[in-house]
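Need residues for this backbone.
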């Protein structure tokens, strides 16, 4: 199996006034054109940057994928500004296909934790008028934000249930570390529970919204009380990963779930299944 050498560089992909948003591009050295992946960092919609997915991004580049790891607006900028940046970032990457030596018809997305939620939400709604509201520069090729495959690493797929899960955990005698400050992070980004419902991939499926459903992979560490828990407000008997997978398949989508030891999740144990998934669906 070939292992590519690659280069990396940071480029500005979008400006909002004086504010620049960068993408870190990982580019295999070879003839190409290569398939490409847009990768999104985690951080509870408030923290993190494009360095947060470096391990996976380097693994994908070695496997022959161009990767664009994005910075994007988050925290107090609020929903849906992040989706505007991600939608634009996917179109920007496709519009520069020749320059970056990629095949614009073989583009996927990936994301970790809250970035996994964002990757799936952006993939479900590539033509949403809010998300697609930032035009490319005049004269750019006509492209859209559709992706062929989405790989999620322990995504916060249901912002509302995780918000309530954290609030309940804070009422326990010894609150777990993940719950401390989590309510405030949700409030900062989402502002309201109504927004957490609207931008919610699980509830989008459960209310029957017509969305795009690219091939999907969920990589989940166990045990992981932060992402693998039961929503007490749902009558689904399983945890949130199983609930989403069930709904995705019921709606006609193709999705796989891979469980890994949680203490090894940020390693080849999770990177290898993601690389294999993209090789299958972006070949």
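Answer:
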């Amino acid at each position: 199996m070939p292992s590519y050498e690659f280069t990396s560089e940071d480029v500005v992909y979008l400006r909002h006034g004086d504010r620049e948003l960068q993408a870190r591009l990982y580019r295999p050295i070879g003839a190409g054109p290569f398939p490409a992946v847009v990768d999104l960092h985690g951080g509870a919609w408030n923290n993190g940057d494009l360095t947060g997915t470096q391990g996976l991004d380097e693994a994908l580049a070695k496997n022959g994928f161009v990767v664009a790891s994005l910075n994007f607006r988050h925290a107090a900028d609020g929903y849906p500004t992040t989706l505007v940046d991600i939608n634009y970032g996917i179109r920007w990457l496709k519009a520069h296909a020749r320059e970056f030596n990629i095949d614009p018809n073989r583009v996927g997305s990936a994301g970790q934790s809250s970035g996994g939620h964002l990757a799936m939400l952006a993939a479900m709604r590539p033509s949403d008028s809010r998300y697609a509201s930032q035009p490319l520069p005049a004269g750019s090729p006509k492209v859209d934000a559709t992706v062929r495959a989405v790989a999620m690493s322990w995504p916060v797929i249901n912002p509302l249930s995780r918000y309530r899960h954290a609030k309940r955990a804070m009422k326990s005698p010894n609150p777990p570390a993940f719950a401390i400050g989590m309510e405030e992070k949700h409030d900062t980004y989402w502002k309201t529970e109504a927004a957490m419902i609207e931008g919610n991939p699980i509830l989008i499926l459960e209310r029957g919204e017509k969305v795009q459903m690219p091939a999907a992979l969920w990589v989940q560490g166990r045990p992981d009380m932060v992402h693998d828990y039961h929503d007490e407000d749902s009558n689904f008997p399983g945890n949130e990963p199983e609930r989403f997978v069930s709904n995705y398949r019921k709606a006609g989508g193709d999705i796989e779930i891979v469980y890994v030891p949680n203490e090894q999740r940020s390693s080849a144990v999770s990177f290898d299944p993601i690389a294999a998934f993209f090789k299958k669906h972006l070949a």
